[in-house]
Design goal:
By secondary structure, the chain is of the alpha/beta class. It folds into two domains: about 1-110 and about 255-360, Isopropylmalate Dehydrogenase, CATH 3.40.718; about 115-255, 3-Layer(aba) Sandwich (Isopropylmalate Dehydrogenase). The protein contains eleven helices and twelve strands. The protein has helices at about 15-30, 45-50, 55-65, 85-95, 155-175, 195-210, 220-230, 240-255, 295-305, 310-335, 350-360; strands at about 5-15, 35-40, 65-70, 100-105, 120-125, 135-140, 145, 185-190, 215-220, 235-240, 265, 270-275. The strands form two sheets. The protein has a ten-stranded mixed β-sheet, with helices on both faces. It is globular and about 55 Å long. The two termini are about 20 Å apart. Bound molecules: 1,4-dihydronicotinamide adenine dinucleotide (NAI) and magnesium ion. 1,4-dihydronicotinamide adenine dinucleotide binds next to loops.
Amino acid sequence: MSAAPYTILVIPGDGIGREVIPAAVAVLRATGLPFHFENADAGWECFQHHGEALPSATLTAARAADAILFGAVASPGYPVAGYRSPIVQLRRELDLYANIRPVFDDLPENGSNPRRRKVDLVVVRENTEGLYAGRERVEDDGATAIAERVITRRASARIMRVACDLARARRNARNGSDAPPGRVTVVHKANVLRETCGLFRTVALEVAQAYPDLQIDEMLVDTCALQLATRPERFDVIVTTNLFGDILSDVACAWGGGLGLAPSANLGERHALFEPVHGAAPDIAGKGIANPLAAIGCAALLLDHLAGHAPADLASAMRGWSARIQRAIRHVRAAGPHTPDLDGVATTADVIAAVLSHMFDT
Ligand code: NAI
Ligand code: MG
């Protein structure tokens, strides 16, 4: 394995992004795989110091990197002139159109988990348009605020293809003849948002015709929220528009141990960015108690992604390390040490040490 190193751009951002992203870097370093890490700035503190939330040097480095690790950014809840969320900007600039948010729960039944569920689902969220298209304006001297929801045939078709390809790959990875067929649930609100959700639904069902081996169903978004809370095991791959996907993936991640364990991949044709689903968590930032497992899960997703493009021997090493990291995460989730979000008293550093040690279990 003497391949040229892969460049990983590390953007910790604000708040606990700076506490958990080093955990992802530490597990990647521990693999001994040929990685070269570079650091870059983005976020609210960056904006306050340099007047830019996403400096052009960061964007240039992001375009040149083989993969990006992103922590979280703190965005003020009120408009600030010149400030735009750098993660939304990065997704759009790099055309990272597919946001992949897996949730997995195989914890044994116990006192804190009395209703055991076998949850293994992925939310596939369209990442470039919808209500995040940035088309907001104010009229009537400030008395009316308007947001435009943009849905295109092109973006709807390509996100549906990602969802269907993923459902196929997941089915093929489930061994055994009794493994269920892959299922894609198209989630929308086409009964009310007739044009935008209507187009998304029509295009998704058209694309589905090319996947006769999959079960395709559809669900209204409010029904989906309830079903995620009560019958999560019925889902395999959920595909939906930008804002719906953001909300539903937070609901779903409750089954995987909450925000502190939820990783995500942002994928496009040419670039890939990995980030925890959670934000900057100002309420716990600086205390050393943020759960690093979501960020560590991002390292595993990053390895799986790079493996898809690497020479065979390197790809197999990357997949092997990804499996080891995911096994170590499951071990720590089941047996501790646990940070306070999982009702424990461990620190971020305790959890990192435990994962680093379990990565090498035989
Ligand atoms: P948040 O995800 O930062 O926090 C929600 C709650 O979950 C908080 O109580 C927090 O302490 C807890 N939490 C989150 N991650 C955790 C972890 N790893 N370990 C332990 N506890 C964890 O969401 P919130 O509070 O709505 O937003 C805070 C800031 O983060 C805002 O400025 C928001 O704009 C930003 N944000 C940024 C995101 C991004 O960069 N992709 C995503 C979501 C929010
Ligand atoms: Mg969110």
